[in-house]
Amino acid sequence: MENEEKKIYVSQAVKKRLPRYYRYLRQLLEDGKLRISSLELAALMNVTASQIRQDLNCFGGFGQQGYGYNVKYLFGKISEILGVGERYTAVIIGAGNLGHALAASGTFKDRGVILKALFDISSEKIGKSISGFPVYSLDELDEYCMNERVDIAVLTVPGSAVASVSEKIAATDIKGVWNFSEVELSLPPRLSVENVHLGDKLMNLCYDIKSNQSEEESAGAGQEE
Ligand code: ATP
Q1: Does residue 135's CB lie within 6 angstroms of at least one atom of ligand 1?
Q2: What is the position in ligand 1's atom list of the atom closest to the CA of 95?
Q3: Distance between terminal CA atoms of the chain?
Q4: What are the CA-CA distances from residue 203 to residues 177, 178, 208, 210 (Å)?
Q5: Is it the case that residue 168 has pLDDT exceeding 60?
Q6: pLDDT at residue 1 greater than cutoff 60
Q7: How far is the CA of 129 from the centre of ligand 1 (A)?
Q8: Residue 64, Cα to own-chain centre: how many angstroms?
């Protein structure tokens, strides 16, 4: 069909990097920058210009020699691919410290996701509001999802609660889970899952520090010999 927009194929590797492009391009737009060369963008993002050209090649036609990229166009395309304009909606399950921090942050709004409410089992939290968002009982999740569109569940409950909460999520029309718990989820394949194992990242960092230290120590010992 002539009017049908050409579908852009994005590899898994590029898909993983798109949010980073999104962040930098948004900042460039905020700074009023309309064009940017692959060299400039590469320097800003601390990657090679050839990586930029390879990644953005699939969007076609607007990375012209001598002109650079049209920031607004590129930002629009990347936003579209990432579903920023879809106005996806989210609820946070687990109104503890992490749930609080996420609700208070601009993370959702900045990515076009609409946070609607939090859910918890603690009677001390239910009925209160956090950063302006209501906290409901987890028992109400099912009914809430029947009345309100909820696309994303953000999981910030302790590991011990994950199995029972997962069952409740699976019984709704929720489409994806942003999982901050330390546990892998067992959910029907129709649900997309993005794991954020914060503790694992911290351990990776500790490992790198330790490796650097032992490299420095052995280099130092080599010099002393
Ligand atoms: P707090 O001390 O305020 O509870 P926390 O972040 O240290 O915060 P966690 O034990 O990690 O607490 O629990 C996070 C949140 O998840 C808490 O608000 C807790 O009430 C809630 N929670 C625990 N079990 C469930 C469950 N099955 N369903 C929904 N929420 C739960």
Answers
A1: no
A2: 18
A3: 74
A4: 23, 20, 9, 10
A5: yes
A6: no
A7: 15
A8: 30
Reported as type and span, the H/E element at residue 153 is: strand 152-155
Q: Which atom number of ligand 1 is nearest to the Cα of residue 97? A: 6
CB contact at 8 A, 105 and 69: no
Q: Tell whether ligand 1 has an atom less than 6 A from the beta carbon of residue 94.
A: yes
Claim: this prediction has a pTM higher than 0.85: yes
DSSP state of 161: G
Q: State mean pLDDT over 81-107.
A: 96
DSSP of 76-139: HHHHHHTTGGG--EEEEE--SHHHHHHHHSSHHHHTT-EEEEEEES-TTTTT-EETTEEEEEGG
Residue 2 has pLDDT above 50, yes or no: no
> b/e for 7-43, b at 16 or more Cβ within 10 A?
eeebeeebeebbeebbebbbebeeeeeebbbbebbbe
Q: Specify the pLDDT at position 17.
A: 92
Residues 172, 141: contact at Cβ < 8 Å? yes
Q: What is the CA radius of gyration of the chain?
A: 22
**Is the per-residue pLDDT at 63 higher than 60?**
no
Quick one: pLDDT at residue 61?
47
Would you state the structure tokens that stand for residue 142, as one six-digit string? 């099912």
Q: What is the pLDDT of residues 112-136, one digit of tens each?
A: 999 999 999 999 999 999 999 999 9
Please check whether residue 93 is in contact with residue 141, taking contact to mean a CB–CB distance below 8 angstroms: yes
